[in-house]
Amino acid sequence: MTSRVDAPLKVTGQARYGADHNFPGMAYGYLVLSTIARGRIVAMDVTAAKSAPGVLGVYSPFDPLELHAVSTPMLGETWVPLQDDQVAYYGQAIGFVVAETFEQARDAAMLVEVSYQALPAATSMADGMATAEDAPPSRDGSPSSLEILAPGVESIDEAFAASPVVVEATYSTAPQNHAAMEPHSAVAVWGDGGVTVYSGNQGAMLQVMELAAALGVGPERVHAVNPFVGGAFGGKGRTSAPAFLAAAAARALGRPVKAALAREQVFTATAGRAATVQKLTLGADHQGTLIAMRHDSWCSTAMDRSFVEPTSHGTSREYYATQNLALSQKIVPLNLPPTTFMRAPGEAPGSFALESAIDELAVALNMDPIELRLRNNATAPVGKDLQWSSKHLDECFHVGAARFGWAQRTPQGRTDGDWLVGMGVASALFPALRFPASVEITLRADDTAVVSTGGSDPGTGLLTVLSLVGGESLDIAADRVTPRLGDSAYPPGGMSAGSTATASASTAVMIAATQVIDDLLGLASAPDAPFHGVEVSYEGGRVLGGGRSLSFGELLRALDRESLSATGSSAPGDEYTKHSFSSFGAQFCEVRVHRWTREARVSRMLGVFDAGRIINEKTARSQIAGGMIWGVSAALHEALEFEAGGRPANADLAGYLVPVNADIPDIDVHFLRYPDTLHNAVGAKGIGEIGTVGMAAAVANAVYNATGIRVRHIPITIEDLL
Ligand code: MOS
């Protein structure tokens, strides 16, 4: 149990986030956002803004900054502001005012007069469903729809016709914004070598690629720094509008420029979670064995169709064994802010629908919902030959049921005074992935080591993991290892995305450590070195040979060296041709609904996870607890509400409800510990996203158990329980 190594810096205010960087001569930029949902900007009158006190520049589609289209192999196209006069959503960046102070820039931004030619806008799923389109093929090439049928079965409908018990229901989930504590911001400084951009993101390398493309310079001229990141969750994967604008304006003005979004702007000038509508059909025999599953999904997307929230493919293929499966994924382009990755994209809303439907099937069968899930436990994703490398979902349920007191649950719930009390469960799954990553290890003459990589720790605990795995790999105490992240000058790290960072970086740490120890032993036994001519070995941070030993620091000092460095790289190999890899979990929740006020309160929650090796219990627990809280938020609190004109009605942290301490009881998190070394050398499978998966369904299922009311949309409000 190691405390977060960066905790003292964070809690004492010494941690410097992107916008905390200041430079002599720095100017401040403020974004101007559109006030219609769809149309063309006819004119922008910037006369008053330009003559306002302190104003240095007013940029717009008619007087743009030099920025170019951005496309990367990893994320495809990323939108770059001010490139044309088209407005596709309310709150889109359409101008940038730079002034001597933040207040001057903000005041001048209010003076920009915009004339629009407005067009009718589609701003709700109801508006857009009629014109839904097939989703483009997913990144792994899967088509938008897929049908897998048992031999001799002609159609999925035939499989349902042959199913003695069928449940069918349509579920919906609300759009969300990441609402990270740190709003998107950037500080850009140009020098002889190029530009340095300080901006919170999920991986310095991607930011370098995107900024270089946008600025039309070589990647060697962009230095991306993100030492601390105040929350990301997928919302700081792509480079943000403030970063593009600050970098381009700093170049145009020849001064450092800082740009930060106001909280309200975060809700539109970034991207968030799609709204979804999902129709589930499940067919089973009387014993609860699934015969057929169908999952048809619609997700909102921006008019540029830049992101698909893959609820069907990301969920129903992976959770349960069935011989017959039909999936489809459609997109609903809307005049709303763009959608993007948000913690467990696909699985989070997808598991709400699927795991609610499974609960409905359990009710129809009069069967315990855990029993139903275990009966359909799959050993491989449906239609794939590759079995999971390790899967202990059944143990998650058994351990969880005992810990949670599941045996006390009745199908009708129970009462406690004026409270109706129910319990719910859901399965959770998230694929275990890995990205290429490189790590440099430096042994220093003072007997400490430095582990550096260009990845990022947006609160995940990666920094702490690097010191632990670094210490373990070098066979020294972790407090002798200084971890460094968040700088593109370090070897290219992976992304803190897709629950991949620990597995990716740790594997590279192990390889780098082996290399630097080899190099150290080579130095130790070179001619004129202390161990010349004797057999050498390494243990506990010391070189041993010829009956004596020196610490690596002593050896480096004897050789008059300050340090010795080596780099290790790792990338996914052919393991994905041999197995499927996922983390698994069982979510348990107890909800109390007040008989008269109908308020629903989560009173207990437990998550049991099979996520491979857990490197640091404390930060791992924190990751999972954060995800579970997000699941409660999705179930009972969180929704971005858009007015018909596309303006968000609750674009602040007063109106955009997230749980506060009073909403969250003690959270019990339990890890099964089965290292998965078929996936990577360190054995970790990923915990960043799975904590939120299934949680919303566990809450909704508990609400049903308490009240008998099945709510098929989230968030669930008091009105739903009247
Ligand atoms: Mo995240 S949604 O893993 O960037």
Automatic annotation (TrEMBL):
Q: What keywords are assigned to this protein?
A: Molybdenum, Oxidoreductase
* Taxonomic superkingdom: Bacteria
Any one Gene Ontology molecular-function term assigned to this protein's record: oxidoreductase activity
Database matches in Pfam families = Ald_Xan_dh_C, MoCoBD_1, MoCoBD_2
> Sorted alphabetically, which InterPro entries does this protein's record hold?
Ald_Oxase/Xan_DH_a/b, Ald_Oxase/Xan_DH_a/b_sf, Ald_Oxase/xanthine_DH-like, AldOxase/xan_DH_MoCoBD1, AldOxase/xan_DH_MoCoBD2, AldOxase/xan_DH_Mopterin-bd_sf
Question: In this protein, which residues make up the domain named Aldehyde oxidase/xanthine dehydrogenase a/b hammerhead?
Answer: 12-120
Which SMART domains does the UniProt record give?
Ald_Xan_dh_C
What PANTHER family does the database record attribute to this sequence? ALDEHYDE OXIDASE 1-RELATED (PTHR11908:SF132), XANTHINE DEHYDROGENASE (PTHR11908)
Q: What is this protein called?
A: Xanthine dehydrogenase YagR molybdenum-binding subunit
Print the organism lineage: Bacteria, Bacillati, Actinomycetota, Actinomycetes, Pseudonocardiales
